[in-house]
Amino acid sequence: MPAPELAADDVRLAALLRGVNVGGRNIPMYELRDLVGTLDVRNVRTVLASGNVLLDAPAATPVGTTRARLEQAIGERFGYEALVALVPLTLVGELAAGAPWPDDDLWHTYVAFSTTPGLLREATTATEENLTADAAAADAGATATQMTAAGVSGRDDGADDPAPGRVPRAASPGTEPAEPSAPLPGSPHPAPTEADDAPAGTRLAEVRARAATRRTLSEQLAANEEAAARVTELRERTGRTEVCSVVAASFLVGGAERDAERGDLVESWQHPDAALAARLAEVGLDALWWRCPRGSSLTTPLARTLARAHFSATTTRNVRTLRRLS
């Protein structure tokens, strides 16, 4: 069906509702369409069943005012705190066309919208910091496991235990290792040796096995560099060479598709340039392009960040959905 004609004094908008028909919040699209039609808007249509509404509003009415009316009406009618990203359709089309990555059946590209300026950049910064911290923790766990495997468990010369934080000296060749003494108060327990390892199949054995196979920090950083190189090559080949944040986080995400050669998950995102960001800010919005393997949009590091209550003023749409809207 062709789109209805746009009146000269109207602007066409896409209202993107957060969290509709997921997590037990079910809103029939015909009820949503009828409700929006009672406001000062025209040509109301819904697209798909995920809370996407096209509407024409008076150009003289600020977008923020129309958004507030929509949120109030939807919240009162359906009994929840509604969040609506109200985006001029011209910007929807620009964001869909400007996705930094080509279509790929194994990967999905999304646009995240925020109704709080700066929130998406805060989310990507927090994600990168969490990944760095988790990689360091994995490195520490791998180092402890390597020390245990090497037999580093105590002093062999009868001296007192070393101070917390110092690495004990291994036994000299031909000598019997000293019995490990109890740890000093407040110091960490020594890592278990194979002799006192947990029984196979127990939770403790599983945790130790995972720690032994995690990447060291240097290996994690090397994987990130390789992922960045691949995305850079893709950017150059497609004519888009902007810098993009890229993370490889195989030990953080389970059940997602992984790179066949390296076995790691690659997730990437890109913020709009200054000109597009300024146009979005004029209507109270920010946006972010985000790419992840198919089926992992709820489990990647960035997805987990955006799921926190602090980042609730965000909603995401697949680029293919945005193309249908525009």
Automatic annotation (TrEMBL):
It comes from the Bacteria. This is DUF1697 domain-containing protein. Residues 146-199 are annotated as: Disordered. It holds the Pfam family DUF1697. Residues 180-191 have a biased composition (Pro residues). SUPFAM superfamilies: SP0830-like.
